[in-house]
Amino acid sequence: MNKRNLASLFLIAFICFSCGDDRTENQDWNIPSNEVFDGGPGKDGIPSVDDPQFTSATEISFLTDDELVVGVFHNGIAKAYPHIILDWHEIVNDEIEDLKYALTYCPLTGTAINWNRTINGQETEFGVSGKLYNTNLIPYDRLTDSYWTQIGLECVNGDLIGREIETHQVVETEWGTWKESYPNSLVMNLSTGFSRSYGNYPYGDYITNNDRFLFPVEPLDERLPSKERVLGVIEPNFEKAYSINLFDTERVLVENYDQGEFFVIGSKEDNYILAYENNLGLQDVVFKQSSLPIVAEDAAGNQIGMDGSILSGPMAGAQLNPLNSFIGYWFSLGAFYPEIEIR
Questions:
Q1: Which pLDDT band, with edges at 50, 70 and 90, does 24 fall under?
Q2: Final residue of a domain: which of 164, 188, 212?
Q3: pTM, two decimal places
Q4: Rounded to the nearest 5°, which phi and psi values hold at 96?
Q5: Three-state SS for 81?
Q6: Does one domain contain both 249 and 134?
Q7: Are residues 182 and 253 both part of a single domain?
Q8: Which CATH number do you get for residue 309?
Q9: What are 342's strand-pairing partners?
């Protein structure tokens, strides 16, 4: 049986769902329980990777430069998680020094969000519940067995219901851009402990077909094409979406919200959008990608890296604060945040 047929069987199993399990019917949810669907494989049927293995960026041969990765940078250490692995596992429980996190990824909404695994002072892991809300991943924590919504960023069922999750910054971009920016990066490799058709996308034309959904979405916001990739900035009293198509020409946008000014910096060519608070008072920031990881520079010569750090200039060593933001398909932002504005 070839890889395409295997992927088709997986997809058939995935979409044969039933929403009538005990948890959905008999326990309290703070989202509509009749809109929580069982994806088919069951709890941990899509296995998280709890012992990820890494290879140096210079030794990676299974990625092409245009394939997407999700990057995490902390205390000078960079790690990259390829989409071709995340498509099949959705959650990676990992750490960098003191930072314990779960890299959560939903292939049906295209959202990668880094979750803090320390809750109420206790470290936990997250797993894939097998359930979906607005076709988005519902993780569960293995400490209390509570269920969470990935895009909604909170616990929706169980002992921790109503608790918001703490997130950490990720940089989602093409592999070629990431390895040029962080040549010493570690890269999650294919030694996951599971046999999967990595590199063979399991959902057919789902990414490119704007009319194709595997599960209900409510409301379905049609202001942009459903599968257009956008950055959602989700802050108190501020929700706004920025399409990757904006950054074909306008590479730096300056915005204002309750806390002050922030920058949205992006490149359609390299498939990334970043959002940082201007907590340093930078002036006249312009796009500059002549030498990655530098992506912008202000009038005083402060050069900004992809992770928001000032790499050179008068403020070298300072850090722009990342905003609460993530990239996803437009329909998912519109469904979870129906009042969201579009730039």
A1: low
A2: 188
A3: 0.91
A4: -130, 110
A5: strand
A6: no
A7: no
A8: 2.102.10
A9: 241
Q: Is 294 helix (H, G, I), strand (E, B) or coil?
A: strand
CA dihedral 226, 107, 165, 189 (to 10 degrees): -150
Say if residue 282 is in the same domain as residue 176: no
Residue 27 lies in a domain: yes
What digits encode the pLDDT tens for the residues 58-110?
999 999 999 999 999 999 999 999 999 999 999 999 999 999 999 999 999 99
Per-residue pLDDT of 101-134, as tens digits, reads 999 999 999 999 999 999 999 999 999 999 999 9
SS3 of 159-199: CCCCCECCEECCEEEEHHHHHHHCCCCEEECCCCCCCCCCC
- With contact defined as beta carbons under 8 Å apart, do 171 and 274 qualify? yes
Residues in Cβ contact with 18 at an 8 Å cutoff, skipping those fewer than 6 apart:
38
| pLDDT over 90 at 296, yes or no | yes
Same domain, 177 and 235: no
Q: Classify residue 135: in a domain, yes or no.
A: yes
Number of domains in the chain: 2
Cα–Cα distances (Å) from 257 to 66, 262, 274, 298, in that order, read 34, 8, 16, 20
Q: Write out the residue range of the structural domain in which residue 31 sits.
A: 3-188
Same domain, 14 and 143: yes
* Cβ-defined contacts of 201-210 (< 8 Å, 24+): 201/7, 201/84, 201/87, 202/7, 202/10, 202/11, 202/14, 202/87, 202/88, 202/107, 203/11, 203/107, 203/108, 204/7, 204/8, 204/11, 206/108, 207/110
Helix H or strand E encompassing 108: none
Is the same domain home to 163 and 243? no
Q: How far apart are CA 322 and CA 308, in angstroms?
A: 7
How sure is the predictor about 3, in pLDDT bands with cuts at 50, 70 and 90? very low
Query: Are both 94 and 172 inside the same structural domain?
Result: yes
Instruction: Tell me: pLDDT of 14 over 70.
Output: no
Single out the residue of 247, 245, 316, 251 nearest to residue 287, CA to CA: 251
Q: How far is CA 294 from the centre of its chain?
A: 22
Q: Are residues 156 and 297 in the same domain?
A: no
Do residues 270 and 69 lie in contact, with contact meaning Cβ atoms separated by under 8 Å?
no
End-to-end CA distance of the chain: 46
Strand-strand pairing, 154-157 and 36-38 = unpaired
